[in-house]
Design a protein that fits this description.
It contains 2 helices and 4 strands; from the N terminus they run E-H-E-E-H-E. The protein has helices at residues 16-25, 51-63; strands at residues 4-11, 31-36, 41-47, 68-76. The radius of gyration is 12 Å and the shape is globular.
Length: 82
């Protein structure tokens, strides 16, 4: 059974829209949610076979100067409990 993986991270509030757009443009890697736009708290809900692509996209954005901090993942079969 595939797991849902939650990739959580923080960005600058002025980058929320661009990160959301970039992740959304990579169809199928995950569903982006802004937890708190004022603090830049973001989460991407992905799968155990796609979340590494999410991490690669975030790392590429960091290489281009975007501030992305506190990246961590959590896996669960019980997404409704999140």
């Amino acid at each position: 059974m595939p797991h849902t993986v939650r990739v959580k991270f923080n960005i600058r509030k002025q980058d929320v829209l661009i990160v959301n757009s970039i992740i959304d443009s990579h169809e199928g890697i995950g569903l982006v949610r802004t937890v708190d736009a004022k603090t830049g708290a973001m989460v991407v809900y992905s799968t155990d076979d796609q979340y590494e692509t999410v991490l690669l996209v975030l790392e590429d954005l960091k290489k281009y100067g975007m501030v992305i901090e506190n990246i961590h993942t959590e896996a669960s079969e019980k997404i409704d409990e999140w």
